[in-house]
């Protein structure tokens, strides 16, 4: 995923039945979700992603190593992530993510 984020974003859009991202939206996602950007925003008190963490926002971001996420999820979470990455997500989950991501794009992009 880290190696070619643009292809990964387009693949996730297809899996989740979300309209393809424009080049501008793709660039914005990449810029705003880099580890350095997320840490900086958290340290400045931005609570838009993790509002419940309070003053510990910056501690939510770990090493940023490929595959490091496995250290922070349980087996059920890892199984769900695996299914999503293989396109084996349920129709109900697809509809949920389609709604959630489409709404977020309409509100924030």
Walk me through what this model shows:
The chain has 109 residues and is mainly alpha-helical. The protein has one domain. The protein is built from five helices and no strands. The mean pLDDT is 77.
Strand content: under 5%
How large is the radius of gyration?
Answer: 15 Å
| End-to-end Cα distance | 23 Å
Shape: globular
Largest sheet: none
Helix and strand composition category: mainly alpha
Number of strands: 0
Question: How are helices and strands ordered from N to C?
Answer: HHHHH
Count of individual domains: 1
Helix content class: 40-55%
Mean pLDDT: 77
Q: How many helices in DSSP terms?
A: 5
Low-confidence stretches: none
Question: What's the arrangement of secondary structure elements?
Answer:
Elements lengths: L4 H11 L7 H10 L2 H9 L31 H11 L5 H18 L1
């Amino acid at each position: 995923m880290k190696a070619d984020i643009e292809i990964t974003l387009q693949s996730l859009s297809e899996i989740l039945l979300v309209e393809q991202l424009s080049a501008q939206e793709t660039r914005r996602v990449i810029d705003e979700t880099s580890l350095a950007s997320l840490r900086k925003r958290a340290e400045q008190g931005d609570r838009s992603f993790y509002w419940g963490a309070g003053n510990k926002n910056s501690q939510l971001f770990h090493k940023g190593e490929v595959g490091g996420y496995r250290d922070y999820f349980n087996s059920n979470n890892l199984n769900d992530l695996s299914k999503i990455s293989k396109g084996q997500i349920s129709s109900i989950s697809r509809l949920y993510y389609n709604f959630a991501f489409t709404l977020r794009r309409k509100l924030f992009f």
